[in-house]
Write a structure and sequence with these properties.
Blueprint lengths: L4 E4 L3 E6 L17 H8 L4 E2 L8 E7 L2 H12 L4 E9 L6 E5 L2 E3 L9 E3 L8 E9 L3 E8 L6 H8 L13 H4 L7 E9 L6 E5 L5
Length: 209
């Protein structure tokens, strides 16, 4: 039940979130357990600064005080935080690198919640840089750097270019969903400016797949 702590000081807490854990509580008793609740119990005062999808693992940062929370939230809002993810996607990605620039919004059909959709007219800007790490027989390992932080951005962007993430229960067809026992998407590293010391700091979580 304990958290996998990457780093802790008086102002910030970095945790390696496991796949399958909600970042914050959802609606209903079955969704009460979350990283936010566990962190608050184990480290009083710790508050979530940003979120990872339930099935995405990896580095996530919390703040211990309101001032630090505001500063870190500002860094995310102003796109000063550098985020690196690793994903394994279906198919062979032909190019070695690229950028996906596709605006997104929430799917307004409640039957499709919590899915997002691409919308060039009303979507919010969403930009993802990517690089090929390795090509295998039926899949490709990618390094991803999202410039923006939209909900499901990486999953929807990769699905839209024809390479859904393996194990994705929202955006991958059944055959690709079944190729992995979890979503193969991991927050590998996070680079922030420390809210007290102003030091540039990078935190990493080992890749579990």
């Amino acid at each position: 039940m304990g958290l996998d702590v990457i780093y802790k000081d008086e102002r910030i807490l970095l945790v390696n979130k496991p796949a399958g854990m909600l970042t914050v509580p959802g609606i209903g008793p079955e969704k009460a357990d979350s990283l936010a609740r566990r962190a608050a119990s184990e480290f009083p005062g710790a508050r979530i600064v940003h979120r990872l999808d339930r099935d995405t693992s990896g580095v996530i940062i919390l703040a211990f005080d309101a001032e630090g929370h505001r500063e870190l939230s500002r860094q995310f809002h102003d796109r000063e935080v550098k985020k690196t993810y690793i994903a394994v996607v279906a198919g062979i990605v032909q190019q070695d690198s690229g950028t996906i620039d596709l605006p997104m919004r929430k799917d307004m059909d409640p039957r499709n919640a919590p899915r997002q959709v691409i919308d060039h007219a009303e979507g919010r800007p969403a930009i993802t840089h990517w690089w090929v790490i390795e090509r295998l027989a039926d899949r490709t390992r990618l390094r991803l750097q999202p410039l923006t932080g939209r909900s499901h951005q990486l999953r929807l962007h990769l699905k839209t270019i024809g390479h859904p993430v393996l194990g994705d229960d929202l955006y991958a067809p059944a055959k690709i969903l079944g190729l992995a026992d979890r979503l193969l998407l991991h927050s590998q590293s996070l680079t922030i400016v420390h809210p007290e010391t102003a030091a540039l700091m990078t935190f990493e979580a080992p890749i579990p797949f």
